[in-house]
Every structure is written in structure tokens, then in C-alpha cells.
Amino acid sequence: MSEIPRRTVLRGAAVASAAGAVSQAPWLLGGRTAQAAAAERDAGEPVTIRWLEEGGAGAAPGSTFGVPWPRGQHKEGRRFALTTEDGKDVPVQTWATAYWPDGTLKWTAHAAGAGLAGAGSYRLSPGEPAAPAEKLTVSESGGRITVDTGVIKTVIGGDGEHLVRSVTRGSTEIARAGRLVLLRQGKIDDDDRGSASWERFDGEISGAKVEQKGPVRAVVRIDGKHRRGRRSLLPFSVRLYFYAGADSFRMVHTITYDGDASKDFVRGLGVRFTVPMRDETYDRHIRIAGEGEGFLTEAVKGITGLRRDPGAAVRTAQVKGEKLPDPATWDQRVTTRLHLIPTWGDHTLSQLSADGFTLRKRTKAGHGWITSGGGGRANGFGYVGGVSGGLSFGLRDFWERHPSQLDIRGAAGDAADVTLWLWSPEAQPMDLRFYHDGMGQDTYEEQLEGLQITYEDYEPGFGTPYGIARTSELMFWANAATPDAGTLVRQSAAVRTPPQLVAPPAQLHAAKVFGDWAPEDRSTEGKKTVEEHLDFLFSYYKGQVESRRWYGFWDHGDIMHTYDPDRHQWRYDVGGYAWDNSELSPDLWLWLGYLRSGRADIFRFAEHMTRHTGEVDVYHLGEWAGLGTRHGVQHYGCSAKQQRISTAAYRRYYYFLTADERVGDLMRSLVDSDETFLALDPLRKIRTEPYEPDRNALAIGLGTDWSGLAAAWLTEWERRGPQAEKARKRLLSTMRTIARMPNGFVTGEGLYDLDTGEFAEAEKKVGVSHLSAMFGQVEICSELIDLIDMPEFEKAWLQYCRLYGATPAEQQQECGAEFGNLILKQGHSRLTAYAATRLGDDQLATRAWREFHTGDGYGPSLPWKAEKLTGPDVLNPAEEATWVDTNTTALYGLAAIQNLALIGDKLPG
């Protein structure tokens, strides 16, 4: 066996560090080397930052993005400057989001606002950042927080019902009383009598906190619950984002379901603002976006289309949203009859499915509605106000997250109420009850029988939504006057696709982050073929989302697990074959696909998946908080609640690329998730010996369980979070004690002590599963080995990598037993490739490509194309590739990407 090459500057300190604090800062694993110090002095070339999609900043207030740096290049505290491609300064705010173990910067986040418009790319380099032209200030007084962007001033409440007390522009109040609304229904009308009643809960704040205060970006977090009397429901966490010089702010809104699914049915969930209406009713305007760049363009009191003509100039001005001339100058046949023209104060756009919205309006409550339009997929954007100012508002992923709705009420009065409904009150109530009655599966034996037929791991009481969450994104603009058509189109576009700045794949790769991947390479026929296969798989799933309508408030972002060729349909109603819930890591496939390509469509697909799988598929409250749910008909339905689904390994990419605070919260909440093994044994149904969870001897799998814990600990340590020292110790002590087991990772399971963070010594045994390494362990171990100098850990991991695909005789000789009849050989070929690279073993490299091409996954002889289907075989026209399933897709994608990066030069052809 060849000597293991070293790729780390850390020498020996790691093991000692696990036992106690080190000198200097606790997150360091030794002092910087002379090479690292020299690298710090050499700041390197500027990084070119570009827009993910074409079009630039548009109407967005700014963009926040992450950039990784090679180890040792930039010391802590380094300042950065941002300039346009032609050298103009752009104000930028910088903060560290991760550090290398030597204390140098690993990831930095950068917020830029004013100055972004008009440029296609930017240069980020060490230097003194430019100051914003408009000063951003944040002040706290009397339990309130005031954020002044230099253009608008927003007062945020620290208690009560109003999250946003007021939004003013200059001396004009544009909006006030920003609050949350929840409508609850106590039962479902399963008959045709319709007797269910509603209750309204109002958001009540428990606290507000300033998380950032400039100079370019400010962030305020507000927490609370919806309350009615003594009853509270659906805890919320809302963040408001402000940029210097901006006339807008962004809201990231999270709710967690804590109701009883049998009687707490959400009838409506919304965000509401009150907008003062100061102008004459004919100078008040309604703008509601339809599809694309389409808009409903109306006035509260319309003076177009009348029997008598006020004059062309008057009509044109109203349509444009401009102040009308004095009515005394109009045709008096109109002026004297203005009081006879109706005022349309109420407007509603409801999007109850992915394929249709309706628009209607009425004069006021108590009178009938009339239809004002309709279409397919609305952008989820509108405006209400007048020539003296008004509020633009928008909800991202509006039609994708149906049922959704926009309401304007009372625009003919002194103030209009605007409600952005995340769940439309006109839709059927949110029904989160489990979908069947258990079918007599009362014992583990019966439940395991059920698993054999529907692949569903059922257990009474486990199909509960209690603790799942959902995050939504909203935007608001405080306009000085009714925006013109072009401005409205740009604002609507910024809601649909928030402009995102990104670093190029070359910079991401040069920094050596996220394990083993490399930019796309089609330089040989063999590589080109693999790249084309990767392209096909992504395009296929992108098309399936649309043709199969994988949309909806709780569903958007997930994909299905397995296909049913007989019905020409994914198995959406068959137990564990339905929603995928991150099974075998499609999240990782997508994010690595983006890193190597820089493709916007892959980024957005992965972004939506991250938003879904980290929220809906994971518990955030209750005894299972920190655990995710295995794949099934309902995202929370399966009784397998495990670390492998909640793992921070799936969230790290989006967090470091965007600095998204909500995803940061999700990863931080997992640091103590080792405690969940006291509450629930993942293997309770299949253990052959009695087992009771013991705090000092918890049975934890060394694969799917430990890799999830390790990802959370690594991330918290790198971020220098509040529990960084605990996370570091847990990480190092588990690495060290896994390595001391005679068979290392091959052992399969260890007894873990929650108080010491160590695994007990184990006997020499074999417990290998085909799933162990397939939920982020490959990627996390690769990162850890690069970060931490612990030869015994690397040896243990390389043993697992070498032997998984080895012959039974080789397994028997080294570990004392054969591993059994293992599957997923194609997915595991990347473990063989990793061992080949670390050990410099060409025979292993040859074996890896053989496993990739002739294993149990997708082979080169497959058709690598889809067939088009139309009715009556399918509900909607769709493409079908009956040989595609998501398990194999994810593993093919990961193996292809990592094998190309590790042993691409050994690929035949």
C-alpha cells in the first residue's frame, strides 16, 4: 500500500485538542505556518463577481453573496472592496461566515446595494470598502427599532401585534400596522352542509433583535406566535432586511406548525399592511401583476370608458398613474357627475392551483363581486396607492406555492388593507391529517409486513406534522408616487427572481471547499458522454416538476422517489415510493452540479429544494426536533425519523453561497441533535436484542447517524457559533474514537456517551449497510480529512472506501467477516475513487470506473433519452424515461461528479 499523501497544514494538534482547550482561540488547531503567513501577505488576484441571471440588480434593493478563500490567503479581519468592471466603487459590507482551522478566512459574506445597477460584473479584492452615499442607521428606543435607509424609515415593534409600526418616505407615511394573520378552522366539512366556522389569530411579538446594523445592510429578527385569547398557534420567526439607499425591504417569514392536525386546520395565513389613501379617488391606483409582464391597470375611480369624455390628456394621465389636472378643466359633463361614478375599493387575485388565477373586484363590503380578469400563473405582485405615494408588495413563488392570494380592501376609504396570503382563505383548509387509518398495523411485525408491500414505514402516532415549518419570502417598496409601467415590471421581476450575485466556479474550486468536485470538463469523448448524461438527468427532473405539477405550499421544492411505468405516473400514492425527502442525497447532486457549472437553473432548483427539505421534511419542535422524516406519501408521514434527512450537509451550500440566516438557524439547531437518540431509536423495529436508550451508551450508527451529527458540528465550529467549542470537541472526539475501533467505520454502530462525546471501545465486528455513506458521509469525511490531521481517522475511512467494493475474500481477510450482498455499487464507486487518489493506486482507479459503468446503476447502454407522452396515457403532456428513479439519479450524479474530479484522467475513452 502506498504512503498516504498529506494535503493539510495541520500537524498533530487535533488529537490533543480533543481532550481540552488549546492555546489562542478555542477554534484553532495550532498556529499558522510560515507558508500560511506568506499567503496572507499575497492577497491574490481580485475575484470576478457576476449576476446569477442576466439583468443585474433591477428593482431589488441589493444582493448578499458568499465567497470562499483558499486556506491561509486572508487573515481574520481582512477588509474587502467592490468595484464595477469599469472601476467605479460599490459600497459593500463584509463579514466572515466560516474560518479555516488555522484561523484564516474560509468564507466571507458581502452585502452590496446602491451602485449595483447597470453593471454586469464586479471585482472583489482586499481593500477599503466605499461608504454608502445614503447612510443606513439603526436605533433602538422604547422597545422599538428604527431602521433608516436614507430613503425610507421603518419603525419595528418589539411587542404587541404590529411587526412594522410604520414605513415613511420623507414626511409621507406609506404603510403602517404590518402584522400577521392566521385563520383557523376547527373541523373539515366532509359533507355538503358547510357548517365549519373560522377564528382569527393575530401575530403577537415575543421579542425583536437587531442582527446587523450596517453600514450597507441591516437585519432585524422578530419572533412570536399567533394568538387568540389565551390560545397561541403557529410560532413565527420573521426577518426584515434593509439596504442603504433602498426604498424597499425584504421579509423572510417562517411558521412552524404546532397544532393538532385533527382539529387545527389553517384556513388562511397572511401578512397584512395598512396603506393610507390621501389622494382623490381618481388619483388612486391599483396595479396587480398577471403572467409575465402583464398587469391589471386600474384606478379606484375610473374616468376612462365613460359615456362622456373628460379629455384625452386626462384619460392618458390616469392610465399612466399620473396626477390628473384639476377637474374644473375637464369636460364639465364628467366633472359634475363624478359622484355618480363607482369607486372600486376591493380587489382580489386568487391562485388556487398552479395553472389558474382569477381577478375580481367590488365597490365595498356587502356588495357583489365582478370578474376583472384571470389567467394561468400570476407573479404574486401588486401596488396600491396614489400620486402622493403607495406600497408595492410581492410574494415569491406565488403560483408554485399555491393556494395563494393577494387582497386589497378599502382603497376607496382613508386607508387600504393589503394582505399577502401565503395560504388563501378561498382554498380548501390546510389538511395535515395522516392519510390512512393504520390498516391494523399495530405491532412492529405488522408494520414490517406493510413495509414489504408499500415500502411505507408506518407506526401509529408518527405521521404527525407537529413541528414542521415553512419559510416564505416577500418584498415591499415604499414608492413616492405610483410607479410607471417599467418600474412595476422590474419590481415584479425582483420578487419572482431575487437578483443574486455569485462567485464563478473557478474561484469556488480554487478555494478547495465542499470536497471533491471540479468544473465541467468535456475534453475527451469519455468525459463528454458523462457530462451529457448529467445534463440529461437534470433537464429530465426539471421537466418532471412542470409536467407532473410538483407544486404547492408544502410540496414545492421536493421531487418524487420512484416511477410507475404501468400508470405512466410517479408513485405519488404508494407508501415510501412517493415524495423523496432527500433520499440518497439529490440535494448534494444538485448543489455540486451548480458549483461545477455555474448554471442559474440548477442553482434555483437546488435553492427550492433546500428551502423545502430543511423546513418541511424536518421537525423543529417537540421530542423529535432535529430529526427528519423518511420518504413517503406525506412529507412527515413515515415513522422513520432520522439524522440522515435533517443533516446540515444538505444546507451548507446554500448558506455559504448566500449567507441566508434562516438556513443558518436550521444548521445551528442541529448541534445538540445527538440528544434525540434518547427520545427515539432509529433501529427500534429491527433490533434483535433488547435495547433501552442510555445517555452514556447510546447506539448510534457510524454512517447516516454520525455523518449528520458531524456535518452540524463541523459547520458550527467553522462558523464560530455559540457552541463552537462544544461542536469542535464532539467532532474530534468522535473521529478519534471511531478510528480506534478495530474495524473503524466497518463496525457499523457504536455506543456513544452524550456527556463525553466519545464512542466506547468496540469489538472487531462487521456491520456495513449500503445506505451508511450515501447521506453526506462521503462529502463530510472528505472535508474533515482535508481540514484535520488525524491519520488514524483517515486510515479508518480509507479502509471503508477500499473494502466496500472489494471481493468477499479481501473483506474477510482484513475485517474478519464478509460484508454481505451489498448494492448501490455505482454510487459507491466514488469511495473507491477517493481511496485510489489518496493512496495513489491506479488499480483502484480502474476498479472505480468499472464499478461506475457496470455497477447496479445507470449504464452507458441505456437510451439516455425520454419519450413524449400525451393523453389519454397521462393527465398532462409529459416526458417519460421508465428507467429513471431518483435514488439512482442522485447516486449517478454524485459518482459522476466526484469520479471525474478525482480520477477523470483515468476515465477510458
UniProtKB/TrEMBL annotation:
Domain PcRGLX/YetA-like N-terminal RIFT barrel: 46-126
Matching InterPro entries: PcRGLX/YetA-like, PcRGLX/YetA_2nd, PcRGLX/YetA_3rd, PcRGLX_1st, TAT_signal
One Pfam family here: PcRGLX_2nd
Superkingdom as given in the UniProt entry: Bacteria
Domain PcRGLX/YetA-like C-terminal alpha/alpha toroid: residue ranges: 498-907
Alphabetized PROSITE patterns for the sequence: TAT
Residue ranges annotated for the PcRGLX/YetA-like central beta-sandwich domain, each copy included: 137-491
PANTHER family to which the protein is assigned, alphabetical: CONCANAVALIN A-LIKE LECTIN/GLUCANASE, TAT PATHWAY SIGNAL SEQUENCE DOMAIN PROTEIN
Name this protein carries in UniProt: Tat pathway signal sequence domain protein
Organism of derivation: Streptomyces lycii
Taxonomic lineage from the root: Bacteria, Bacillati, Actinomycetota, Actinomycetes, Kitasatosporales
